[in-house]
Amino acid sequence: MSDQLRQPSPELFFETVNAYQRTATIKAALELDVFTAIGEGRRTIQALAARCETSERGMRILCDYLVILSFLTKVNGQYGLTQDSALFLDRRSEAYIGNATEFLLSPMIMDGFEDIVAAVRKGGTVIPEDGTVAPENPVWVKFARGMASMMALPAKLIAKFLDIGDGRNLKVLDIAASHGLFGIEIALLNPNAEVVALDWPNVLEVAKENAQNAGVSERYSTLEGSAFDVNYGNGYDIVLLTNFLHHFDPSTCEGLLKKVHASLAAGGRVVTLEMVANEDRVSPPIPASFSMIMLASTPRGDAYTFSELQRMFENTGFLHNELHQLPPTMQRIVISHK
Ligand SMILES: C[S@@+](CC[C@H](N)C(=O)[O-])C[C@H]1O[C@@H](n2cnc3c(N)ncnc32)[C@H](O)[C@@H]1O
């Protein structure tokens, strides 16, 4: 409906002011494991309350609210999972992402939103010591453990996109590797790929565990420390820069990209995965909204547009850049060629 035909409504204001209630409810539903219980076949309030050890009244109100939010269905008083809830919120699913709340709702991330007035006045986070980009910030261990499930799909899609499954020798540098899944997927696809993962030492422990579990640890090594200080070595065919540039301002990114350029072999590629905002900076809604998280939690980070990323890469010697969608994820990749 066009804005002129629509009656004025306070609905958006009311919903937005109360949005914290949605956050608390989904967190509680995950903690009580309601989605798993329904997936197991418990569809009535009585069965769900018994399985999740709650009161029947509490479970009825919780489940009805989850129906209103479209996380559950309700037919003849019986509750069911939607397609998305079955795939992502039932703990038995391989694509379960419920533990992402460990990072997304961690005090470090939520504290940044405590005083948005001050962050807007300042133009950056008011969390002491530079917020999430403080050296060895423990929140990144939570990211590595909690967000790996959300990054598993993009990691698989990128490895496939790169078309490197032919067994050629491949040297890969994974900058800010975290859980390590982006490099590990490449190592799984190409038995001659050697991966070097760079991150803070406590975070790399998680990457090493994952490499071990994936059976690629013999071709997996690590570089501990800041990406701005550590010597990368050289001769890399691929450098992975996933979800990293958005923490910093363009000139800091360019300092890093100069190092990356020098570390690449001739013809090497950088893969940048980001929440890329359209040039209008207000669409698509989820990637464009990511700027707000950067304002709240970093001194100068942002959700960059493709033209901004392109400029950073061109200013640091890269020959050309391609933007690709990565469906069904909300993110996009930029491939930059040396
Ligand atoms: C948003 S996470 C992205 C992790 C992973 N690349 C991904 O896409 O899922 C940011 C990562 O950057 C790391 N990090 C932050 N500052 C860093 C720095 N100066 N040098 C190296 N890693 C850093 C954090 O430890 C964390 O693992």
TrEMBL record:
Keywords: Methyltransferase, S-adenosyl-L-methionine, Transferase. GO terms for biological process: methylation. Residues 139-318 form the O-methyltransferase C-terminal domain. Pfam families: Dimerisation (PF08100), Methyltransf_2 (PF00891). Transmembrane segments: none annotated. InterPro entries: COMT-like (IPR016461), COMT_C (IPR001077), COMT_dimerisation (IPR012967), SAM-dependent_MTases_sf (IPR029063), WH-like_DNA-bd_sf (IPR036388), WH_DNA-bd_sf (IPR036390). The lineage of its organism: Bacteria, Bacillati, Cyanobacteriota, Cyanophyceae, Neosynechococcales. This is Methyltransferase type 12. One of its GO terms (molecular function) is O-methyltransferase activity. The active site is at residue 246. Residues 15-90 form the O-methyltransferase dimerisation domain. SUPFAM superfamilies: S-adenosyl-L-methionine-dependent methyltransferases (SSF53335), Winged helix' DNA-binding domain (SSF46785). PANTHER family: O-METHYLTRANSFERASE CICE, PUTATIVE (AFU_ORTHOLOGUE AFUA_4G14580)-RELATED.
